[in-house]
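Write out the 3D structure for:
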Amino acid sequence: MEVNPNLSEKAQYDYALVLRATKEKDQKAYAELMQRYEGAIFHLINRMVFSQDDAEDLTIETFTKAFKKLPQYTPAFAFSTWLFKIASNHTIDFIRKKRINALSLDRGFTNEDGDRMEISVKDDGLDPMEALQKQERVEKMREVVAQLKDRYRRLVELRYFEERSYEEISEELDLPLGTVKAQLFRARDMMAKILETSRETI
């Protein structure tokens, strides 16, 4: 596949990492891609949701989505542009689902690539049927979590059922903060695979 000659050196380096990750299954390439953009993605999302905890979760989810779609990436444009689009779309979906009061987002914002984004947030409550469906999703999630190995299951329970911060989990389990985030990332991937196997979605 030919690389777009208009790509910057940084973008061409990113593409080389993408090839290593997808063609050679190089875990270090995945890790480096995440390391290069984790801060910028977090900053973008944090400006959209105004919550550090939510932004941390959404950042991990963005990379989970992006890495699953990585074989679809083409060097017609920069990897960073592609990644930021996934992050912004995923966060907009989150905002809609959580019905965050984000009136200030109506003014929009500009990301680091200079793209202007306008966001419209629908604000309506759950009707009884939606509430029932939400409860069913929570029960399905618990079934999936129960299938994880002990260390991953405990992390997920602390984070999502007990709503602990990353720092609190790190302290309780006596694990480095980076390890907590990395293992939660792996736990999400495992849960996604369980769901794919069962052909069900949360």
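The chain has a mean pLDDT of 79.
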